[in-house]
Fold this protein.
Amino acid sequence: MLNVTPENPFFEACGEKVYFLFDTPHLIKCTRNNLRYPHKLFIGNEVVDWKYITALYESNDKLISRLAPKLTDDHVYKRPFNSMKVKFATQVFSQTVSTALSVMIAVGALDGAAEPTATFIERMDNLFDCLNSKHPKMTDPRKYNFAISANSKHLEFLREALEWIASWRFDIPRRQPHTIRGWRVTIQSVLMLWEELSQNFDFDCLLTRNLQQDPLENFFGSVRQKHGCNEHPNVLQFIAALKHISVGKLFNLTSRGNCEIQDTYVLARLAQGNPNEAPLLEVAEFPSSSEVSAEGLPDILEQNTLFCFSGHLVQQFLKSRPAECACGPLLRNEKAVFSGSHQILALLRSHDEPGGLFGQFTAPSHGFFEAVMDMEKEFLEHVGVCAHLHGTVAALQTVVRERLPLNLCCSEACHGDIVQHFCRTRIVLHVKEINRVLKKTKDRKSATKRKLQKV
């Protein structure tokens, strides 16, 4: 009706251009809904398949540190009401999930056909950041969540995304979903809007989060709060609520809402009227699938998570040590090199970070990594019989400390401290995992019961 097309995503009103944009959070949810099993997405000769995300999630249960820790049943499986939450879509289309899939491919847990899915998720993460930016300046050279400017990398990325999305084809009967057209219209609108704002209105940057409809949804939520149980006010009631809000202050929105609170102050504005990207690191080649298979897929995934866990332990432990402590060279690998398939997760997580092969990650020494694997075995063997004791940490320390060689610490005091740090950290992770499993297995209440409880 408005003659809006991906090529001309605007209409004119009173001689002025009005750019048409779809809400990016809704687009990301629609993309997830169209992709979710049993559908597939074809991009040229590549196939994006939800089954690989499901396989990743189901393979994470027994790992000390899950490859994608934020994924839950609500993210992966279609459940009542979970399609409404934006975070269930954005946390799937994230760099963490993309990296986790890449690790699964590298160790042979997933075949090479999953690579397009990992690449797709990474590009969707960057696209969402680009169209939902909130930082005026770049905080991470790998991210796109900062303002669009004349020299930023957003413009080239968005132009490439236009061609990329135009090649999408879902295996859905009849016509293709409107989501594809929605992305193209929105991206073209942002490009043309930025061009007009920068050339005609001297804009230095554009925060694309201000183009979303969250402020409008938050406002309507405040109006509904003014009427208690009446969620559908008539015209007179709406005007009365608008007047009340204009002279008062907005109600606090519920923390369980689906929209982020925006830092916009409408009343304060009424009187006004009208870095260089890090170079790619050269690393050793990944081991072949046959080499990894010989080690065992469950074992190699566990070793990857334990390697990252060991580095985290070293980093946190050394932060708390006095200046005279000499444990650093014994616990960390000062000259980190890629030496095995157990380092793939750490390598991919630190991709493009400055600071060496593993970026800001503290690589543990080989001796400490092996000691952590031994301590982990003792922990899993004894945590069940020690959990009920009053001094759980102390009881676990007595059986774990023998697995950490004394020559990895500068003193007996440091030896005892790092064993205690391991036990405390490991107990926290163990309890979190138990709670997650209990929550996962708990029977879900029906929608009717939840509504009755709310009433």
Q: What stands out?
A: The radius of gyration is 26 Å. Strands lie at 10-13, 16-19, 40-43, 46-49, 148-149, 168-170, 205-206.
